[in-house]
Amino acid sequence: MSAPATNLVTINVDGRDYQVPAGLNLIDALELFGLEIPHYCYHPKLTVAGNCRMCLVETGMPMRDRATNQIIIEPDGRMKIGWGPKPAVACTTNCSGGLHVRTNTPVVKDCREGVMEFLLVNHPLDCPICDQAGECKLQEFATDYGRGYSRFVEEKNVKPKRTRLGPRVMLDDERCILCSRCVRFCDEIVKDPVLGFIDRGSYSTLTCYPGRELDNNYSLNTVDICPVGALTSTDFRFKMRVWFLKPAPSICTESSVGVNTEVWSREGKIYRITPRDNNAVNDCWMSDSGRELYKIVESPLRIDFFAVDNGKCTADKALTRATELLKAGGVGYIGSAQSSLEEQFLLWQLVKAELGPVSFVSHPGKGDGLLISNDATPNLRGAFLTGLLKELPKANIDDLRRKVESGAIKTLFVVHEDLAALGFSEDLLRRTQVIYLGTHANPTSDHAHVVLPGQMVFEKTGSFVNQQWRMQRFFQAVPGPTGTAPDIQVLSQLIARVTGSAATTASPDSIWQLLAANIAPLSGWSWESLGMQGRVLNASAWAHIPFPEGKSRHFDPAAVTAVKAG
Amino acid sequence: MPATERRIIYRHIDEPGYTIDLACYQRHGGYEVLRKAIARKPEELTQEVKDSGLKGRGGAGFPTGVKWGFLDRKSGKPVYLICNADESEPGTYKDRQIIYKDPHQLIEGTVLSAYAIQAKLAFIYIRGEMFGGFTILERAIEEARAANFVGNNILGSGYSVDIIVHRGAGCYICGEETGLIESLEGKRAYPRIKPPYFPAVLGLYNCPTIVNNVETLCQVKHVVDMGGKEFAKIGVPGDSGTHIWGISGHVAKPGYYEIESGKATVRDLLYDFGGGPPAGRTIKAVIPGGVSMKILRMGEKFKVKLPDGSAGEWGVLDIPLDSGSFAQCGTSLGTSGMIFMDDTTDMVEALANLNAFYAHESCGQCTPCREGSLWLKKITARVCDGGGRMEDIDLVKTIADQVAGRTICAHGEAVAWPCQSNVPKFRDEWEAKIRAQIHAREHPEGAAATARTGLRLV
Questions:
Q1: Residue A207 sits at the chain B interface (C-beta within 8 Å)
Q2: Which of A50, A312, A547, B5 falls between 20 and 30 A from B134, CA-CA?
């Protein structure tokens, strides 16, 4: 929670004073101190609904003498507090000086037990088959604040168990507690108000507007914010119990927004990607399309072998052959904005060892103003930072191609890109000596003299620079396929061979020592210093570059030049 | 001497020859109060209302002048007046008479009040089922507009206000003022959270809004006519003016009676106006006003402070008909629709009926009311169907306790109060009924003997 440190007020919770920012929501304020007020409908990024009533607490303010307007002091020296006649919901309570809150009284306990009991009377209690089990607020708060037994002997309401709200979201009406988070999310964040309630009372039902579907590219966020198992992802549904999954912090490679994510895996297999909170980048949201990026991890096109002249071989043989080709001169490089900063830096070291022109290919995206930008790569700015790029890449590499056609360039070191898609004819491809570093097979890898297998973002550790010039780290979630090695290992071994120096085991940490020493804006930085929320660097050196991004949720291109070093 | 009516609001209602058209209303002095008042300053009129001590007639009894005083004038936003004509409380039918039989009185009261608070636009939100009332109001407003009592530059005063009649869609919660406002905005009638959505600050379209009951707005006309201080002399201190009592249930002459506040008792209402219980029966219980108010059981005694300051004791029939007296007896006169129940009434069935109503009308927005109301309905229905358990008695009471005071709007209290009052006060009936059911379940051969005796309500 990033709260302004200015204008602090003192509130009293259960007899203890806390300094909190004035006006802050009480639930958020107490969270700053690790104190939990249980809640379902409240969400810090959405408007307040106040409908679940789980956050009821007792509130009061110091009483003032009507005549003098002075705060009345009791004989024991404490302020006399005028407690409200009824419990109040914490989610509509904003912190003001003197606010007194009681969260541990019999009344509050009874309120919480009562609400928990009510929420469960018509709940199907089908946790054994519910995907939410393990990360369900009903389970958690029933344990923490419920009575632990049921007094309900009537027949429960029966509602539809599988209503398709959209292509990616399934609704189990019986589990829905009508908190309206999903409704508010669609209204307020995506501005696609397709969800609403019909019918009344306990028979109320979440539904889509007639003739519409919940099919916007952010629909799966409703699954994330659903505090219960009512909304589930059609993709993840029934696939894996969440307690078997382990999350790894990652960064979405869908666009230069750099959405913070968590990649959930078990035994080397990824099951889902969810957003990770970063209030400066993506808040707690991410696109549906970004969540599907892991699906090509297990593609049949995956390159999981080193190869020379289309024959599988050892890493040593492939690297030796690549070294030969590079040292023969006449080399051109095609880098990638999909590569991490560390990989780009190593590529630049390689270029400096065996000089040749460097090209990049632009990958324009369709920005949506929210969390997808006009640049469909995660790390174009990294290429500027490392020195690989001096100006924005074009959609083609015709200049480079002409040099290949003329024979000025004999060998191409290609990272990820496909030359066939860039105007290289079959004949030209055959005539070019290609060293291909990539994760998936394409016509270029098919024709390559040397194939070096790469790893996907989920399989390695590194950092990207997003559109805000925010340096963000991603961590390995699953091991790469057998036969692959981290790109930084491959590149550093290649550099060692080309330069004739001793090979070392590259790690982000070791590369960062070089980065800090060689790149001015990163002077004094270290791998660890990036933290989990990223770090904005001084990008004034590139202020003149007309990057393609427009406005998005936490990005305004006009404001970037004003951003100072983080 | 039997108690008598004092008809102010209902003065012409049911009068032979009195019709709903403008000409008739004007023959009886209609719009003369407006004509005089619109020449005065708005602040003078609001002061009259404050002086009158008039309490709202929509059920909560909040002082009208105080409510008007809450209007946020600093925001610079337009002010709206809404007449709450969504009369839906079971046992209440006082506003309907005004709308159907004297619509111009409501229109005059509305325009007067709109002028007093300087409203930009006035709405009458009428219950959807009152389609006749809707057409009557539409026609009457058309007449009033043609005669320049409504619309632009009313009577040359420079003040303009129009009245829009809006029909609800048959939902009890639309009578809750913030639910009404949501509904009027075209949304689902989910009551709003207070704070911050106090209508006088953030009402219709988030502008300062006053929501007043039909009868309240009519009372305003008479406040302005008489002058606030003079009006305050009617009735008793703390509750000025008259109340229109709608009597229903087990009485010989159900109907509506306008009685000066505090000048008659429940006994007068039952015998002098209502004609007493049906022959051979005795009254067992009374719900004072609108079914959500707490029930009173005959034989209850209340320790009270009499008007002269001395301590006294009242039985149910002794309670004077004013808001303060009912408050002293732990209940409220609400919308003054009194329901009498005689000794043939099965109190469990009576509560089951109310629970069914409130469960049906709960909007479903907040948890305690949504789940509590349906649960209570299910329990009481089961007890009525012969499946009662002794623990159900306390269960009903404790569920109600978990609802009251913890909801977004007062529907939570409406759900809880009947249970919280019925169960402890008629515990003996509950126990007897359930004991008989348990006996019947254990001795199925004698089941016929425990067949339902009371009037079947659910």
A1: no
A2: B5
Answer yes or no: are the C-beta atoms of B196 and B385 closer than 8 Å.
no
Mutate to test the interface with A, among B371, B373, B394, B434 (most CBs of A within 10 A): B371
Quote the percentage of chain A above a pLDDT of 70. 98
Task: List pLDDT tens digits, range A422-466.
Answer: 999 999 998 899 999 999 999 999 999 999 999 999 999 999 999
What is the domain extent for residue B421? 347-450
Q: Using an 8 Å CB-CB cutoff, list chain A residues near B407.
A: 53
Inter-chain touch A53–B362, beta carbons under 8 Å: no
Task: Check CB contact of A203 with chain B, cutoff 8 Å.
Answer: yes
Residue B305 and residue B193 in one domain: no
Helices (H) and strands (E) in chain A, counts: 15, 24
Residue A154: which of B365, B373, B378 has the nearest Cβ?
A: B378
Interface with A, mutate which of B88, B188, B358, B365 (most A CBs under 10 A)? B365
- The answer to whether residue B14 is domain-embedded is no
Residues sharing a CB contact under 8 Å with residue A324, sequence separation 6 or more, in sequence order: none
Residue B404 in 3-state DSSP?
coil
List, by residue range, all CATH 3.30.70.20 domains of chain A: 126-243
**What does the pLDDT read at residue A1?**
44
Could you read off the pLDDT of A147-188 as tens digits, one per residue?
A: 999 999 999 999 999 999 999 999 999 999 999 999 999 999
- Give B325 to chain A, closest Cα distance, Å: 22
B95 and B205 inside one domain: yes
Residue ending a domain, among B205, B233, B261, is: B233
Using an 8 Å CB-CB cutoff, list chain B residues near A203. 364
Instruction: Report the topology of domain A126-243.
Output: Alpha-Beta Plaits (3.30.70)
Instruction: Determine whether the interchain pair A122/B364 forms a contact, defined as Cβ–Cβ distance below 8 Å.
Output: no
Structural domain tally of chain B?
3
Whether B208 contacts B96, CB under 8 Å = no
**Does a structural domain hold residue B12?**
no
Range(s) for CATH 3.10.20.740 in chain A? Answer: 8-104
> Residue A106 carries which side chain, given as an amino acid letter?
P
Residue B139 lies in a domain: yes
CA atoms within 13 A on the CB side of A245: 22
CATH of domain A8-104: 3.10.20.740
Q: Average the pLDDT over B305-320 and give the result.
A: 94
Tell me the residues of B at the A interface, defined by beta carbons under 8 Å apart: 171, 188, 190, 193, 195-196, 359-368, 370-375, 378-379, 382, 389, 395, 402-403, 405-408
- Is there a domain that residue B1 lies in? no
B262 and B220 co-located in one domain = no
pLDDT at position B16 over 60: yes
For residue B365, what is the nearest residue in chain A, using CA coordinates? A51
Q: Check CB contact of A154 with chain B, cutoff 8 Å.
A: yes
Give the residue from B91, B131, B168 showing the smallest Cα distance to B357. Answer: B91
CATH for A306-535 (3.30.470.20, 1.10.340.30, 3.40.50.740, 1.10.630.10)? 3.40.50.740
What pTM did the predictor assign? 0.93
Examine the domain organization and report whether B325 and B364 are in the same domain: no
Closest CB from B188, B362, B375 relative to A154: B375
* Partner residue opposite B371 with nearest CB, options A110, A200, A202: A202
Query: Exposed, middle or buried by CB within 10 Å (0-12, 13-18, 19+), for B24?
Result: middle
DSSP string covering A138-165, please? HHHHHHHHS-SS----SPPP---S-EE-
Instruction: Please indicate if any CB of chain B lies within 8 Å of the CB of A122.
Output: yes
Do B172 and B65 share a structural domain?
A: yes
Instruction: Characterise A477 by phi-psi region: left (phi > 0), alpha (psi -120 to 50), beta (else).
Output: alpha
ipTM of the complex: 0.93
**Number of helical (H) and strand (E) elements in chain B, helices listed first:** 17, 13
